[in-house]
Amino acid sequence: MSSQAQLLPGTLDLLILKAVSLGPLHGYGILLRIGQISNQALLIEQGALYPALFRLVRQGLLTASWGTSENNRRAKFYELTITGRKRFREETQDWNRLASAIAVALAAQPEEL
Amino acid sequence: MSLFISLRSLVSTLLHHSPPDGEMEEELRSHIQHRADDLERSGLGRAEAEHRARVEFGGYERYRQESHEALGGQFFQTLWQDICFGLRVLCKNPGFTAVAVLTLAFGIGANAVVFSVLNALILRPLNVPQSQSLFMIEPGGESTPTQSYPDYVDLRDRNRSFEGLAAYDMAPAGLNAGGKASPVWLYETSGNYFDVLNIRPYLGRFFHRSDEHGPNGSPYIVLSYGYWQSHFQGDPGVVGRTVQLNQHPFTILGVAPPEFRGSELLFAPDFWVPIMNTEQVLGANRLNDRASEGIWLVGHLKPGVTPAQATDDLASVAAYLGKNYPKEDGKISFSLSRPGLVGNMLGRPVRAFVSGLMLLAGLILLAACANLGSLFAARAADRAREIALRLALGSSRKRILRQLLTEAVLVSLIGGVAGLLGGIVLLHWLSAWQPVPNMPVNLPVNPDASVYGVALLLALASGLLFGMVPVRQVLRSDPWQVVKSGSLSSVGRRFAARDLLLVLQIAICAVLVTSSLVAVRGLVRSLHSNFGFRPQGVMLVDTDLDMGGYSGDRVAPMQRRMLDAVETIPGATAVGLSDRLPLSLGWNSSSVFSDNTADLSLSKAAAEALTYNISPGYFTAAGTAMLAGRIFTWHDDAHAPRVAVVNQEFARRVLGSATDAVGRYFKREDGTRIEVVGLVEDGKYKTLTEDPQPAMFLPILQSPSSATFLLIRSDRDPRQLAEAIDGKLRALDPGLPLKIKTWNTELNSALFASRVATIALGVLGALGAMLAITGIFGMAAYSVSKRLRELGIRIALGAQRREVLRAALGRAWRLLAIGSVVGLLLGIAASRMLSAIVYQATPRDPLVLGGVVLAMLLLGLLATWIPAQRALAADPLALLREQ
């Protein structure tokens, strides 16, 4: 457990967009996908996913439709909308810029100043 | 079931645009099922797997809520959440909720009741068609709206502003519908009464103007619906039946509709008869006497005629009357008033009093709101940490305020419904109440839609009002500070607004306590004041020989026989007779002139004296003190010189002085010279609040009257005495309707107004006191609990009990003192209004002032007792350990 990292605020949305960008998923599937692509390194309480999902739907970044899951259960599947895809690209770039900037900053050594 | 489903879908489409509640639930459940499937695959049992899945999901309810918020929900959806959350919060604090709901229930209940009375007596006009244009004609400058019949005929025929003008008055009579005669109350009305008021019969027909065929020519009866139900069992066959009214045959024409209860709100008659037959009803014909005023006029204005135009029109009729009948109508003038409450006579004081009551009730509600406002503010301060956390977690202030307001409105609605229910019970009881025995007087105050509407509005308004109090507090709260220090800092200043509310509330309470004390004191005083007679130990027999068919020369001998009969009852110490009683309903007055006045027109009268026709034994039986001269004897009859006994005020006004009144003369309207043979003390005649009135007493043999009150003074048990009297009189004439009661019972009607006023003010005062107690208690308890730690330290450092109390409760006591003084001053100002209704109501009475101070002190003690105990019991060790 201690090897898992808490999410920074706002990053859950980005992860959801990423997970869904790889193909339509239902809520539990999104969690599994995030776990899979992050090598289980991130700690997300399962319920916390849903407020975020509904927010993204409301912002028009995701659409949802009911379908049948691989377990043969009814489930709601989420997909990126066009605005969602665009926003995902922008936010990925933003995140990368931020991450590399912070990485550079944190890597700074006294002799470089 | 399908109905339920379709209803649910309707509701869900109304409430939710985006995923309905059920859909969200399904999605969350589906998630848990999927997780459980995975866990099951890893080797767990199904039940265990589902349990684990639910645990891993986290706070289901919380995420559901947050999901709702994330959806941005519709207005109603958020509202619904707020309501659910509010209810949960309220259920968690049952004490707080109970206090808040009760406070409001009392506040709104009181308002609903008072508004209902206001609505019934003032706002809601008489229950007749087009009642907005209905007016009463009153003679100007007189306290009663009465007119004479000849003046009525002139007004009816000469005015140009009324569609029609009807006349009516009220009278008791004896009705014999087969069996025993029983006393009834009726309206004598002009033939056009029902047509002018535009009432349609429920059964049979009404009488009309075409049915008037001169005196005693219209022996018709129209029954009221209530009397028809109670005495004729709703039998439709009564139409056309002949009954005996005062031993005269009358034909029942029809039944009035249930919603029409006569043209006076407080006085519902048993039936109506044409005024043409007044001689058979009252025993005297006043239809041709222009000086005998006793009937009331009412009518609809013509469309487009304003009250001002009508008044001008009536002025021209008055000028005509003054010119043609200078003796009776020399200075007559007319004005319009609202019908229903005996014109302005009852209308003005009732309107003033009920409006005053409404104001007080409003103040009580305001006090309740102030109270709840400070309660909510205190709670918002207690919940500061919760609110700060919610703010810190990103909840908007708007959302939090909305939640707090929803809670407040929820409380106020629950309280409003509870109050209204209580109010309705009280109002039904009031409507069924018969304050004056043997008379159809009651208060028709059943609530209607407007009462419910007002109660609902008040509930909503007060909810918003006290809900707004903590708003500023929430808006200003800085989550960082709160989370760090645990509560808001700067305790001292934060309560300035609450202090003001509390002072306001205590002041309102003091106003109420002052006015109810003033009223109670006035009532007590009026019960012990000198009436000019001693009602204790006197039994009355109320009858009218008319009702037994006696008239003319047969009246006086019968009265004599009755007196002789009751005199022989063992234990009767004195018996007497009078045609009317002081302080009963109705009175007789006539103009008197000083002996040297030659011009006997009404404007030259020395006084308008109340007139009582009495037997020789009356003063002894009534207990009226004789100051000089002699009482009447049976020799003061029609053949003897005319004599009178007068009271002191009469002597002062008509004879010039009270000391040597005996032996002097005065004149009556018809010019008769009357010698004063006796002088009696002043008393109360019309109302308890009147100024001294001139009164004269005439021997019954010289001015006969069939109206008869027998007075029997005795120390015997009233019930036995009543039986003995009944036996004696029945032996004389079994057909005479009698009412036997104590004089004190009869007086209830005279004390009715001040009793109602006192009860109403007492109830409101008690309510106000209760609210003040909860208000001070809340404030004191809160400040003690906030400072408990400080107090504990003080005690540990050796503070005395006095100092601890001062520190803990000094503020509450200061506020109480300020509020009480303000309230007392306001109360004194308000009590002036009361003096019109309650006898000798004056706030400048040491007992009242002392009582108010004492009451407020007791309230303060009561309210701060528990907090004080808690402050004194502060255990420094325990407190320090806790924090």
Keywords summarizing the entry:
heterodimer, A: 113 residues, alpha+beta, Arc Repressor Mutant, subunit A, 3-stranded antiparallel beta sheet, two-stranded parallel ribbon, 4 helices, 5 strands, 18% strand, B: 883 residues, 6-stranded mixed beta barrel, 54% helix
Furnish the topology, listing elements before pairings.
The complex is a heterodimer of chains A (113) and B (883).
Chain A: E1 5-6, H1 11-21, E2 25-26, H2 27-37, E3 42-43, H3 49-58, E4 62-68, E5 74-80, H4 82-107
Parallel strand pairs in A: 1-3
Antiparallel strand pairs in A: 2-5, 4-5
Chain B: H1 2-15, H2 21-41, H3 46-57, H4 60-71, H5 75-92, H6 94-123, E1 134-139, E2 147-148, H7 149-158, E3 166-176, E4 182-189, H8 193-197, E5 203-204, E6 220-223, H9 225-232, E7 242-245, E8 248-255, E9 271-274, H10 278-282, E10 293-300, H11 307-324, H12 326-329, E11 334-337, H13 343-382, H14 384-392, H15 397-432, H16 449-468, H17 471-476, H18 479-485, H19 491-494, H20 496-528, E12 538-544, H21 555-567, E13 572-578, E14 589-594, E15 607-614, H22 618-622, E16 626-629, E17 643-647, H23 648-655, E18 665-668, E19 673-680, E20 695-699, E21 707-714, H24 718-732, E22 739-742, H25 743-786, H26 788-796, H27 801-834, H28 846-872, H29 876-882
Parallel strand pairs in B: 4-9, 6-8, 15-20, 17-19
Antiparallel strand pairs in B: 1-10, 1-11, 2-10, 3-4, 3-7, 3-10, 5-8, 6-9, 7-8, 12-21, 12-22, 13-21, 14-15, 14-18, 16-19, 17-20, 18-19
Helix pairs in contact in B: 2-3, 2-4, 5-15, 6-13, 6-15, 6-16, 6-25, 7-11, 13-16, 13-20, 13-25, 14-18, 15-16, 20-25, 20-27, 20-28, 21-24, 25-27, 25-28, 26-29, 27-28
**CATH level 1 name of chain A:** Mainly Alpha
Order of helices and strands of chain A: EHEHEHEEH
Model regions low in confidence, pLDDT < 50 over at least 5 residues of chain B: 12-18, 487-493
Overall shape of chain A: elongated
Domains of chain B (count): 4
Class from helix and strand fractions of chain A? alpha+beta
| Major sheet of chain B | 6 strands, mixed, barrel
Low-confidence stretches of chain A: none
